[in-house]
TrEMBL record:
Keyword terms: Isomerase, Metal-binding, Zinc
EC number: 5.3.1.17
Superkingdom of this protein's organism: Bacteria
Protein name as it appears in the record: 4-deoxy-L-threo-5-hexosulose-uronate ketol-isomerase
Pathway as given in its UniProt record: Glycan metabolism; pectin degradation; 2-dehydro-3-deoxy-D-gluconate from pectin: step 4/5
Species name: Parapedobacter defluvii
Chain residues that bind Zn(2+): H198, H200, E205, H247
Cofactor(s) essential for the protein: Zn(2+)
Amino acid sequence: MSVNYESRYAIGPHETKALDTKALRDNFLIENVFADDTIQLVYTHYDRYLAGGAKPVGKPLPLETIDALKASYFLERRELGIINVGGAGKVSVDGEVYELGFKEALYVGRGHRDVVFSSDNAGRPAKFYLNSAPAHRAYPSKKVTKAEAETVELGSLETANHRVINKLLVNSVVETCQLQMGMTELKTGSVWNTMPAHTHDRRMEVYFYFEVPEGQSVSHFMGQPEETRHIWMQNEQAVISPPWSIHAGAGTSNYTFIWGMAGENLDYDDMDKRAITELK
């Protein structure tokens, strides 16, 4: 079997206050998103969300079901979002082949039985970042390029948060049940993401940081606005953000991150904003 997974149980803000650095990382940080010729997954009990990566090098990788789903195949009751952060590759969905280049996305709807990942060149393998959520109905699969994304430019160099948000798999671009994914690219000289910070009690989120230059890091901030915590992260790592937590970060360089979320609604702007001066 080419799929490895682990489960992460949901914990609340009061329990999180008592965690030391190691326990905080053990609960929320996904250190190893990619491994050669393996699909790595973390099954989180926040909205039953799955996050991980597929890195086919020497062979194609089929997306096999895992015991936690109690399903005869992976997408029996789920939808899947894919963004390629590596070399060119292909995703076969019940025999229909989608070619995915760097930073291109694919939505795969509920009910597809056979999903297989492959790379065009083993010397520069594809890295398919994966997010999945439960789905109540089947929507058509759809590839979305950066050119087809809904984009928003925010922030400024003066506040070190000049960035472009690429909304790839959102309901204004592709029909989904609850899964939404996009990619935020920080401009040179900017390091802060998602500032001012916010929470959204109606959905959880996962951040995946990449294009972090060698020797640089990102400090991801989480926790309730009145009592924040931080997790230092390296390139190609992900972090789980519970509904009660802020999710923001600052790097020692500019970088790119993918956000994925699921929960009660599909309203991207449904968030409870907190002023920077309120954070503690």
